[in-house]
Known about the structure:
This protein has 172 residues and is an alpha+beta fold. It has helices at residues 9-20, 27-37, 69-72, and strands at residues 55-57, 59-63, 81-88, 91-100, 103-111, 117-122, 128-133, 139-145, 148-156, 160-162, 166-168.
Amino acid sequence: MNTPVDPDDTAIESNLRASRRLEEAPETVIQRATAVWQRPARPARPADAPGLLPRLIAALGFDSSTASATTLGVRAAGAATRQLLFSAEGHGIDLRIAASGDQWALSGQVLGPDSYGSAVLADAQGQPVDEAPLDDLGEFRLPAVAAGRYTLTFSLRSTEIVLPSIDVPQSV
């Protein structure tokens, strides 16, 4: 029976360096992996075909204006920001209403499988006031508005989500 010869330090180092080299992935594998993380192009929706998308009415799950200071914690006391959380069939909507001078800025995020589209703010009579696109993370920011009652509608690629009427207060 032969006993194996112990390799010297140079041979061990050479073997370790060789084991750390990675092979290049084939180009087809690289392209396939890259395609997984790229969002598909935003499809154009015909402007003359309103109402073709299913419309969901979101349900209010949380409103910070109705929660007590003890519920929210000490840091929330005196905050001039209101947070509302809505849900609608697999979508979550985080809406924040923050004081901006004597007006209120509305911003937030649409969470869920389809977050391409825009947020449309309408007044109490249903007339559009402003519109903001959703960014790559589903976030939106509308310009500041005066106090009043508004409706916020999210026109997504495969559905429309309408939030219940939102009352924006008179003062901070």
